[in-house]
Design brief:
The complex is a heterotrimer.
Chain A: H1 2-29, H2 36-52, H3 57-77, H4 80-85, H5 88-113, E1 118-119, E2 128-130, E3 133-135, H6 137-159, H7 161-171, H8 173-178, H9 183-205, E4 211-212, H10 216-230, H11 235-255, H12 258-275
Antiparallel strand pairs in A: 1-4, 2-3
Chain B: H1 14-29, H2 31-35, H3 39-65, H4 72-90, H5 94-118, H6 123-143, H7 145-148, E1 154-155, H8 169-190, H9 192-202, H10 204-209, H11 214-240, E2 242-243, H12 250-264, H13 271-286, H14 293-307, H15 312-326, H16 333-343
Antiparallel strand pairs in B: 1-2
Chain C: E1 2-11, E2 14-24, E3 29-33, H1 40-48, E4 53-60, E5 63-64, H2 70-75, E6 78-81, H3 93-100, H4 108-117, H5 119-123, H6 134-146, E7 152-156, H7 164-179, E8 183-188, H8 191-197, E9 200-205, E10 208-214, H9 215-220, H10 222-228
Parallel strand pairs in C: 3-8, 3-9, 6-7, 7-8
Antiparallel strand pairs in C: 1-2, 1-4, 4-5, 9-10
Helix pairs in contact in C: 3-6
Classes of the chains: A mainly alpha, B mainly alpha, C alpha/beta.
Chain lengths: 286, 371, 232
Amino acid sequence: MRAVVFDGVVLGLQFGLLGVGLTLVYGLGGVLNLAHGQLAVLGAIVAALRIDAGASTIAAVLTGLAVAGFVGLALDLTLMRPVYRRVGEDRVLLGLLLMLGVAFIIDGVLEWRYPIEALSLRIGGDPVDILGVRMRTGSLLASAIAVGVGVVLVVFLRYATVGKAVRSVIQDEEGAQLCGVSPATVRAFVFALSGVLAALVAVTRSMTSPVNVNAGIDFTILALIVAVVGGLGSVSGAFLAGVLLGIVNTVSAHYIGTYITTIVLLAAAAVTIVARPSGLLGAGRE
Amino acid sequence: MRRSATVGRAGTSPVRAYAPIVVTGALVALLPLRYGDSRAMMGVVIGGVLFAAYAVGFNVIFGSTGQLFLCTGALAGLGGYASAILSDRHGIPMVLSMVLAALVAAIAGGLLSWIAVSRSLGVIFTGIVTLAFSLSFQNLLLGQRDLTGGETGLVVDAGSDTFLGEQVAPFYVFVGLVMAYLALYRALQRSHVGWAFRALRDDEIAAELAGVDVKRYRVFAGTLGSGMIGLAGALYAHSERFISPSTFSFGEVDVLVIVMLAFGGIGSLLGPVVGAAAFTVLEEWMVSFNEYRLIVYGAVILALFLFFPRGVVPSVQSLAQRLRRRLGRPASPTAAAGERRADAPGPAASPVGPDVVGSEEVRAGGATPPE
Amino acid sequence: MLEIAELSAGYLGEDIIHEVSLAVSEGEAVAVIGSNGAGKTTLFRTVCGLLRASQGTVTFDGRRIAGGRAHDTARRGLAYVPAARHLFPEMTVTENLDLGAYPKRPQPARRALVHDLFPRLAERRRQRAGTLSGGEQQMLAVGRALMSNPRMLLLDEPTTGLAPKLAADAYAALEALRRHGLTVLVAEQQVPLALGFAERGYVLENGRIQLQGTSAELAQDPGVQRAYLGIA
């Protein structure tokens, strides 16, 4: 049982990292990035292609992250302009639908050009004993990265000037403008960052199991569930929800079955929305 | 300028109101003359009409009351699987099974609506909850192999010995269904229900103040639309005689329905038909370009919602009217009204909402309901 | 310093203010008085760039202010304290104040100034802004605007929700700031306070400037007396 829970935590930390990008982008502008998973896969496939071409793992991974971040930035600067010009439900609806279109395009391009490509990073080393449970180095590294990045993010948002500027836009966009914060700049920055974070999760996932071109949708749905349960707009909420849902995932998959597990996770999101829409921690709280 | 809620079209004669439906039906009914020989082509044509039916149901839910239901496929699947299981496993007569299945779908949709309105869920949360429902249903179908046949699907026996099992006959049944749906939609538009829909779409708070029970009308729309979708799914199960989870998945159904309606004009009467026709043709044309399918659909979605927020058809309509004006031709009453509709909305026009629900003949008036 | 010419603006295609013209010179204290719905907030939001004008211009320091670039205006030295305050509820008082100085670093001298003007804020440094009382939130909003060392302050009904003593204190604080060279344009429903503080004033009614003059002139005007001072 302990091994299952540990697996759940490892998975959950990555779930959290996956949800963070999505939740930040939504908190900032009401845009639900339905192409989040595709950005992750894009980064992974680029890295895989670089490795195939002979680049070192580190260089390949960095390239993948950079591409994902760059595409995120490009999307914000182009497609999101008409979206941000609208307000309220209009904005939400348009953003959702446009990102759906983008998701299809990225998926389509990847599946058309590189249908069999996949990213799989083998991390050498013997399994390590943590609290009596054997853990592969791949899982350990993935968890370490997720935790490390998470901590850096929370610290950044809580204490750095730019980080506070980001939170200010989430908490009160007009107030932020009056303080001299440019919401457009903040959004562009965070959109790019969310792309990098998404790709990073694809990379860490690939340390335990291969990530192939059609993983995009699953990633997006996972990110969505985690972000909703954690509270749209909250980074620590996403991590908390991620870990909880990760444990639920592995425990349920182990004892019950995969299909029910997916239903349970989806139900968690639905129940959160109905019972406590602000999620576990609510927006803006770091 | 703020649009006023429109008065019902009590003044237009029923003949004029329903004529477009009859004409469309007559035109569509001619299709078997061209394609009746090919089983494959009839399959495609029936698919197109099926999606038109889905789209009308979705129009009732989203076009009339703005509820973003991302579970059209699941509702159709509820109808399809419920009817198949009731008739095959429990020996219930096919027609009764279909009705019961439609009821099941209606209740599911009504429940989703009710949850959304009682918790005041906005567009995003309604979308997420319905999406969660859709995905859960998909997983349920895959997981409960004993009941549903899982991934391999279900062969539907009931009805295979009736005319539904033939090549061309089911087509007419579907056409009849769509025409009935359209007639229902038109009747709603002309009634106080349609007035209430337009009012609450226009300005929810003003509608409440005018006495419209927004919650009740939303749940009503959700229930009715879902029932329509479920019935269509049930009918399809018996005519196609085979269903599987992928028949009703989000990617197979929901995306297409949304795009079809957006193309044809959300909230318009014939939008679903126009959209279904356009995209059935597109799908057929793309069979040879299967690798590009996703990319094309992605691009279509972007183009549609960026440039034609009211739908391609209404935009073309108003463009045509503007040209006609400029050429000095007297505009027909419908055209004039359409023109007013095109000019009327201010910056508040939503990107994907109807300007005025389902109107070819709009009269701007006071916010008084028809007697 | 601030010139508003023939400004019209509104929401959803309908203008709320019509052809408003207004000017404030450096170092002045000017009031805009009017009742609820007269358009004061719409006017101020357009001036600071939160709302796009449908017609007319706003010029600050010789440069045009365009709609939609409110953060630029803030950085150029025009600070707006909105009636709705727009504070950051999950952040502490200090964090709110510090953000006021963005993008520059918060100067200890400015912080000290704000703490002097509003001792209550100093006491509640670590408290979350969302948990402050109405009056304290108002003070925080003003303090935050001051952190950027603005050349001009736009205040929209700064005394809403303040007890009379606090309202008087607030205006006393503004007086003190004026002596340091701050230019102030304030919108007020509480006309005696406004006229007591400002040198000049404009009367805004139904979105139009109906009257303008020195405070003394306005106070004598029978229309003003009837409508705003309760003198029949």
